[in-house]
Write a structure and sequence with these properties.
Helix content: 40-55%
Strand content: 15-25%
Number of strands: 5
Number of helices: 7
CATH architecture: Roll
Low-confidence stretches: none
Largest sheet: 3 strands, mixed
Structural class: alpha+beta
Radius of gyration: 16 Å
Mean pLDDT: 86
CATH superfamily: CBS-domain
Number of domains: 1
Distance between the termini: 24 Å
CATH topology: CBS-domain
């Protein structure tokens, strides 16, 4: 898992969150309230719940459009358990918490980097993963 996790408070605007995501070149932010993770804001949330809904990024707070409740894993999960957990729940990002505190995050990208065979399996299965993700994975981990 990555122990460096970008987060933003529930009162932040969508514009602030989107700017942070763009600056950090990441696809999601963990949303916190009083230092505790309460949701996640993903690129999909921005598209479906802000842009497509016609909401103002300047006026809308992230707590209105974030995905919740936050589905979390535990630090003692092994990689295969975490992967199965993510697949069962249909998520690509798994925040890792312990006693309500954010410890890190595991992403589908992390899993593919750890287990190259996962990428090949996903490619063979022609899953619903975005082509952009598959291209990024191929470029980053599988082509020289």
């Amino acid at each position: 898992m990555n122990t460096t996790v970008e987060s933003i408070g529930t009162e932040a605007t969508v514009k602030e969150a989107a700017s942070r995501m763009a600056q950090q070149e990441i696809g999601s932010l963990i949303i916190t309230h009083q230092g505790r993770p309460v949701g996640i804001l993903t690129e999909r949330d921005l598209l479906a719940r802000v842009l497509a809904a016609g909401l103002s990024a300047d006026d809308t707070q992230v707590k209105v459009v974030m995905s919740k409740p936050l589905i979390c894993g535990q630090p003692e999960m092994d990689v295969s358990d975490a992967a199965g957990f993510m697949i069962q729940r249909g998520i690509k990002k798994l925040p890792i918490t312990q006693e309500g505190l954010l410890m890190g995050i595991m992403t589908l990208t992390d899993l593919c980097a750890y287990y190259p065979s996962i990428y090949k399996l996903l490619d063979e299965m022609k899953t619903k993963l975005p082509k952009r993700f598959m291209k990024r994975m191929a470029k980053k981990y599988y082509r020289t």
